Amino acid sequence: MGSIALVTGASRGIGRSIALKLGKEGYTVIVNYSGSKDRAEAVVSEIEEAGGSAEAVQCQVQNFDEVKAMVKHITDTHGSIDLVVNNAGVTKDNLLMRMKEAEWDQVVDVNLKGTFNVIQNVARPMIRQKGGRIINISSIVGSLGNAGQTNYVASKAGIDGMTKSVARELAPKGITVNAVAPGFIESDMTDVLSDDVKSQMLAQIPLNHFGNTDDIAETVAFLASGSARYITGQTIHVNGGMYMG
Ligand code: NDP
Question: Where, by residue number, is the active site (predicted)?
Answer without folding.
Answer: 152
